[in-house]
Design goal:
Chain lengths: 247, 604
């Protein structure tokens, strides 16, 4: 049987190294299968996260040959035979053990976002919305929180601006609230100040790695930047605000 | 005990899928302090995999729908073994629970007049499933997750597993848990515990569940002395992927059939016409022409006036039909059936209504479902049986213990209808949270946790690091899964089931010899070892209950007793701990009251 050679990161926050494992290949195999094989037969304590194994839950994020990927959706047969495949944890977050990172920062960011706040419902207690009004928000709600966009974003990955930048995932979330047809809260000040949207310089790396193909930059971040500009930097509006004493 | 991290709450919710989240929100809203434990990260629970939709008689898409019809469909789908009161509450309360999700930010697909769109599904007489393409569960879990983290007095413990429930006399007083990331132990005192741990899918090799579904809540409740009911009813979903091996068991939503998809065998025959049970004969089309007219009506958004295609029969019927076709030599190349949507709908429609299915087959199986048929076959999907609960309060038979969602039994009877799981989570998650909060408020005295008890559990949990055995936890788990699939699968015989019991004992002995290397920090081998106990307990419960039910009904098929038996239709099989043995008894099923009988007969 054909074999694949993997170099898997083993270690924790303090130290670690890539270790070699050989894994038999079978048709349709994905990287997560290879990791499970190693776990079952060679290293029972190899740590990785996974749940659905079908690209829905966003648990098994890792860097395969240096690229942020869901391991369950990354086919082994796309790699050239005979060349080792490296599997490493996401770089933008602290390693807990092996392929598992501490992603708790993301949950803290989410908690602080001003929550959904709908306009009053109609007489029957529900709302009418048209499909064309919700299509764009439904795109954002496809997000599976794999945090691959956070991992690849240089503001977080290279500059570690976690104290001042929410990252693409949460700009998408803020966009889903801002553009929700029922929501009446304005979050532009939050997006500018706490969200740190100005840090994004539209390199689109996040869009490229999104396993749900969400147009993060074009459909979420750029429109939010425009809203922030309209609300805070438009000279006419500034004058109006100054004259009327509005915030 | 001081050496353990300790917290106190009014309510502990174990599990953060739809039911756990909804229970936690409700309890917190009612003023209780809540600790919420999830085995994985928040938002990754299996609810996220629910595809087709949430069943609720909103009557948006077809005004003829009502709670009465939903109640009747649920009871008939469950082969009348359901707890009637739970089925009634589900049907009555689901619409409000779905609308509530919109108030919390969810966005379902819309009708042309701007209301929530509903789709057809197996066993539902009218289009009833509110949905978001084929990712309804994601929408639901994200909405509930975002609502949960806004609650004050609610703490979330991610990647924590409960090892034992703690009792103070007869009453629940909390739980003992371990943190997966550090391996450290947690003592959680609580006045009430809500179990919302989901199912048992990992007891079978071919399954649609994640690693988490090891029957933890079933086993915890059993260990604490609570009754389990209907454990013989394991749902094999008819359409799991069968090829390649790597994806075997992954779910293919019933929504494919709801959108017009048809099942064919290797001869190209639409075989489901041959498998319509007597009970459903007057509700289903008996010719392709009639079935096609129904689909045409539905696609055009017209009220369907003809009968439904037989592909939309309940899951137990469709799973058995596929198994039969394969057994008689008419299976697909990899031992399944063909599910064809490509010849029924346009590529654009398929990509819009079934985007995840398109992606799943495209990326994992090299199949373009807009052009080719999918190969599908039965996969272990859902546990109808579970903790016996009071139908209105979700209280288990142990004071202070509550259960909601898949881990609770009774609602679905012998077979669950697609879409009823998501409404179950919302309706009974909310009820469990509310009644646990009320119980906690009324409970006198602070919950007591005994130091010696806690020390003993902690010592037990680290044994796998210390013993001299040579067994590998994954190998034992796989052997159990193979065995359950072979001997306690879709078609069961007494000989096979008794053989399974003997095998479970052997596997238990192997599990006691598992040794794990490494340390306690994020060690999946250790976690798998601890899960084995639960898997073995649940496997034994399923097998014993299956021996007891000497008839075929819904998801439970006994080859020696191919027909349903009236006597068994009037009882639940109960499993409970008696000392160190597992007792199995029959108890009368609560009878449908007279005022609901006409509803059940379709006369009201």
């Amino acid at each position: 049987m054909e074999e694949a050679h993997l170099k898997i990161f083993r270690g924790d926050r303090d130290s670690g190294a890539f270790q070699d494992y050989a894994v038999p290949l079978h048709e349709g195999m994905v990287v997560l299968d290879a990791i499970h094989f190693v776990q079952a037969h060679q290293a029972t304590d190899l740590a990785c996260r996974w749940n659905c194994k079908a690209g829905r839950c966003g648990s098994c994020s890792a860097e395969v040959n240096g690229k942020p990927k869901l391991m369950c959706m990354t086919r082994m047969d796309q790699f050239p035979a005979g060349t080792p495949i490296t599997v490493a944890p996401m770089k933008a977050f602290p390693v807990i053990k092996d392929l598992v990172c501490d992603v708790s920062w993301n949950y803290e960011v989410n908690k602080r976002i001003p929550p959904f706040n709908p306009r009053p419902p109609e007489a029957d207690g529900t709302w009418r919305m048209h499909q064309f009004d919700i299509d764009r928000v439904q795109e954002f709600r496809k997000c599976i929180e794999c945090f691959l966009c956070q991992d690849v974003c240089h503001v977080l990955r290279d500059h570690d601006k976690k104290d001042s930048f929410a990252g693409p995932r949460f700009l998408v979330r803020m966009a889903s609230l801002e553009m929700h047809p029922l929501d009446v809260t304005s979050r532009t000040a939050y997006i500018k100040d706490q969200g740190g949207i100005g840090y994004c310089n539209i390199t689109k790396c996040c869009t490229e790695v999104c396993p749900e193909s969400i147009h993060i930059t074009d459909n979420a971040i750029i429109p939010l930047k425009e809203r922030v500009v309209d609300d805070f930097y438009d000279p006419v509006r500034r004058l109006v605000r100054w004259l009327t004493g509005q915030q | 005990m001081d050496r353990f991290e300790t917290h106190s709450y009014d309510i502990l919710v174990v599990g953060a899928g739809g039911a756990g989240l909804r229970a936690a929100i409700e309890a917190a809203t009612q003023g209780a302090s809540v600790g919420l434990l999830c085995k994985s990260l928040l938002g990754k629970a299996h609810t996220v995999m629910a595809e087709g939709g949430v069943a609720a008689a909103l009557a948006n898409t077809d005004a003829r729908d009502s709670w009465q019809v939903h109640f009747r469909d649920t009871m008939r789908g469950g082969k009348l073994l359901n707890n009637w009161r739970m089925a009634q509450l589900l049907a009555q309360e689901a619409p409000a629970r779905v609308n509530e999700l919109e108030a919390w930010g969810a966005l379902f697909d819309r009708t042309s007049d701007g209301r929530i769109l509903q789709r057809n599904f197996g066993g539902h007489q009218y289009p009833r499933l509110a949905h978001v393409g084929d990712r309804t569960g994601l929408e639901m879990i994200r909405t509930l997750q975002d609502k949960t983290v806004q609650q004050r007095s609610l703490d979330v413990y991610m990647e924590c597993t409960v090892a034992r429930l703690l009792k103070d006399g007869d009453r629940i007083s909390g739980a003992f848990a371990y943190r997966r990331d550090t391996g450290r132990f947690l003592v959680l005192r609580a006045k009430a515990v809500v179990l919302a741990t989901g199912g048992i899918g990992r007891t079978y090799k071919i399954n649609s569940n994640s690693w988490e579904y090891t029957g933890d809540g079933h086993a915890l409740a059993y260990g604490a002395g609570a009754d389990l009911i209907d454990m013989e009813f394991v749902q094999f979903h008819p359409t799991g992927m069968v090829w390649p091996l790597s994806v075997r068991g992954i779910l293919v939503t019933e929504g494919v059939r709801g959108e017009g998809g048809v099942l064919k065998n290797s001869k190209g025959e639409r075989f489901m016409f041959r498998y319509i049970p007597e009970m459903f004969r007057k509700d289903f089309a008996d010719t392709e022409e009639e079935a096609n007219r129904w689909v045409a009506d539905v696609i055009a958004g017209r009220k369907a006036e003809v009968r439904r295609p037989p592909e939309l029969l309940t899951r137990d019927v469709v799973a058995r039909a596929i198994t039969q076709e394969v057994r008689e030599g008419r299976g697909s190349p990899h031992g399944g059936a063909f599910l064809d949507i490509a010849s029924r709908r346009t590529p654009e429609e398929i990509r819009k209504k079934l985007p995840s299915m398109f992606q799943q087959f495209h990326e994992l199986a090299d199949v373009d479902i807009t052009q080719q048929a999918m190969e599908v076959g039965p996969t272990t999907h859902y546990m109808m049986g579970g903790i016996r609960v009071h139908p209105e309060t979700q209280a288990a038979t142990v004071p202070g213990l509550f259960a909601a969602g898949e881990v609770a039994g009774g609602l679905h009877g012998a077979n669950r209808l697609g879409g009823n799981s998501l409404s179950d989570l919302l309706v009974f998650g909310r009820r469990a949270g509310a009644s646990a909060a009320a119980y906690a408020k009324a409970r006198t005295g602070e919950p007591q946790v005994r130091t010696d008890q806690v020390e003993a559990i902690a010592a037990e949990l680290v044994v796998p690091f210390e013993r001299a055995g040579e067994e590998n936890p994954y190998a034992v788990q796989e052997a159990l899964q193979e065995m359950m699939g072979t001997y306690v699968g879709i078609a069961r015989s007494e000989d096979d089931l008794k053989h399974a019991l003997a095998e479970i004992e052997k596997l238990r002995a192997r599990a006691a010899r598992v040794r794990v290397p490494g340390h306690r920090q994020y060690n999946p081998g250790w976690h798998t070892t601890l899960d084995l106990d639960n898997l073995l307990t649940v496997s034994e419960a399923v097998t014993r209950a299956a021996i007891e039910r000497r008839e075929s009904r819904g998801a439970h098929t006994r080859v020696e007793y191919p027909e349903s038996d009236k006597r068994f239709g009037a009882v639940n099989v109960i499993v409970r701990r008696q000392g160190e043995t597992m007792a199995v008894v029959q108890e009368p099923l609560p009878q449908v009251p007279d005022e609901l009988k006409p509803v059940l007969a379709g006369e009201a």
